[in-house]
Structures are given as C-alpha cells and as structure tokens.
Amino acid sequence: MRAAKHLVGLGLSVCLTLVLSSCETSCNFSGTGLSEAVVSAAVDPETQAPTDIRSSFEASIETVYASVKVNHAPSGSKVKALFFYLQDGVQQIAEVEKEVSGSCYVSFELSPPAIGWPLGQYEVRLLLDGEGEKRAQFSLVQAPGKPDELSAPVPSDAPQQSQLPSPELDQISYKRVAEANLGFSFEMPSDWSWELTPKKDYLISGPSGSQAFEIAVRCHIVAKSGGSAGSLQLQFEEAQSQMAAVPGSKLLKKGLAKIAGVEAPFFIVGYRTKDSRGVQEDFAHSQLVLETHSYYLWLSYSAPVAVYTAYLPVFQHLVDSFSFADALDTSAVKE
User: Which of these, 34, 85, 97, 161, is most buried using a 10 Å CB contact count?
Assistant: First the structure.
C-alpha cells in the first residue's frame, strides 16, 4: 500500500511504503491501547518489533521504520498513523490505517522519494480507534563531517588510474560571471571560459592543454512554459533515466546539496568513455537541479575520475558562489 503527498515549500514528493504485521488474537481486552511508539532502522521480520531504535538518521538511509505496540485490541480495531514534516511548521505528509486485533507490533516502513530525503525533523502520530495518541519524532541529517558532499566514489571494479596532483587551490583566482537575462551568477577560475553551445547550454571548461580542459561544466535551462516541463521530481527522474541508458553507467550516489540558499537534489554516475585525446577513461558525472519561478536549472560537472577528484573543490566553489539577482522563493518549488 502506498501513499504520496507533497512537502509544501520543498518541491519534493515523499512516498511512504507501509508494511504492517498481523496481530495474534487475544481474548483479554483489558488494558487495551498503544505503547512503545518508536522509530528504528530495522524491525524483526517475524514479529515486527523494532530493532536499532534511533531518533536521528543519516540521509543516506534507505528505510526508516515507525513502530508501535498494540495491546489487547478487540477484533476490528484500527491503528492509524499520521506522518508530519516539522521543518517549516507542521505539515502532514501521509495518513494510513490498518485493521488489527489482539496484541502485536505494527510497523510502518518509510522510503525516501527519488530525489532523496528532505533534511529536518519528522513526527509520526499513532492512534488506536482514534484514541490514545502516541508520538515519536526523528530527524534526517547529513552524514557527520560530510555536508553537501558532491564527491564521487570510484567503482570497485574500475581499472586503477594514475593519481593526478591536486591543483594549487589557494593560488586559483576566481571571476564572477553573470547571465543577465536569467538573473543568475557564479564564480569560476579566471582562466576558464564559458560559452553558449548550439544546444543553448552554457559550457564551462578549463584552458586548452591543461588537466582542466577535460572538465565539462554545463548550465542547462528547461523552461516551464505551458507546464510541459513537469515537476522537479519528474525532471530529476527523467535525468537519472537518461544517464542510466548510457552503456555501462552506474549510479554512485544521490542526495541533496545546498546551492543559492536552497537544497537541490543531485546524483552522481560513473561511466566509461573517451577523453579529449580519444583515450578510454572512467568518468564521473554530477548533476543537480533547482527550480525558479519560470525555469529549471540543471548544473552538471563531468571529467575523468582523477581529474574530477582533483578539481572537485573548484566545482564546489562554483556551487557555493551560485546566486540569483532575486532570491529564490521557496513557494516556487511546491510542485
């Protein structure tokens, strides 16, 4: 059984997959009610009793379980679970109920949407026949020490590559470039160039003859005209599908990254292709998307793995410096 609702102000949809245990029949209905409402990283597959109980989860987790113990419930009783996102006020994101009887644990399995968990505080409220409410709160956080990380792990089966020396990052000077018509700007190395391609993308690359020449940073604009572009989540899922169609591609990572004051979903894939010299190399490709009032902006970064790793701080600087002439209104990303 699935329920899907929007998280207001984040432009994300959260799908919750709910798995509930069957209860053992009991004839003793004294002391009917709920107890032990908790959230955990796992449940016992036989009894649905919670294991690895937590109040905080890293955003990389694939499943979060909300559980409660049902005590001596008469036949035909119903447990209702209501889920809320608390980061921007109290926003209900799902509601579901299950018929139970007797005494047992009931667990609800929560899975993130395709664009990853929205970070922040959550709450689940559980009721038995509309009474005896029990609550449990939990939070989704970035991994400690790894905020907004866009680094790409190297696939375990990738051929060994020679390590490139990291560029002298403290010696790189930056310049700010602006797209006046669309109202955004960012900083890039002073000796890098950016140009409008025939496909109307902006291509940013390093100087010819340097390691950075292998880098391709692209800004791609998708207009919302007529509503044909779809939602942010649809954009994200379609982009992942396109990259998955590349022969030999592998999804390495996905999550949320901070850019222009908002959290933008991103993914990283690895694939094998030719570099500018015609030599087959293992590439890493990061891609993130954010939404404005009138368009979606895709920002991607790709290069051979060794170059990607060496220049990742430069791309991170570009992301951190990205801004709009008018601050993004989060109400523009509700769909």
Answer: 85
Nearest CA to 192 out of 68, 27, 314 is that of 314
| Homologous superfamily in CATH for domain 2-141 | Immunoglobulins (2.60.40.10)
**Where along the chain do its domains lie?**
2-141, 169-333
Given a contact cutoff of 8 angstroms between Cβ atoms, the answer to whether 300 and 217 are in contact is: yes
Written as tens digits, the pLDDT of the chain (335 aa) is 333 333 333 333 333 334 444 455 444 445 789 999 999 999 999 999 999 999 999 887 888 899 999 999 999 999 998 888 887 688 787 788 888 999 999 998 877 765 567 778 899 999 999 999 999 999 988 766 544 455 544 433 433 444 455 566 778 899 999 888 888 999 999 999 988 888 778 999 999 888 899 999 999 888 887 555 567 777 788 888 888 888 888 888 877 888 888 888 888 888 888 888 888 888 989 999 888 888 888 999 999 988 888 888 899 899 999 998 875 544 333 33
pTM of the model: 0.54
Fold of 169-333: Protein Transport Mog1p; Chain A (3.40.1000)
**Type of residue found at 288:** L
For 123, the enclosing helix (H) or strand (E) is strand 120-128
For 310, the enclosing helix (H) or strand (E) is helix 305-321
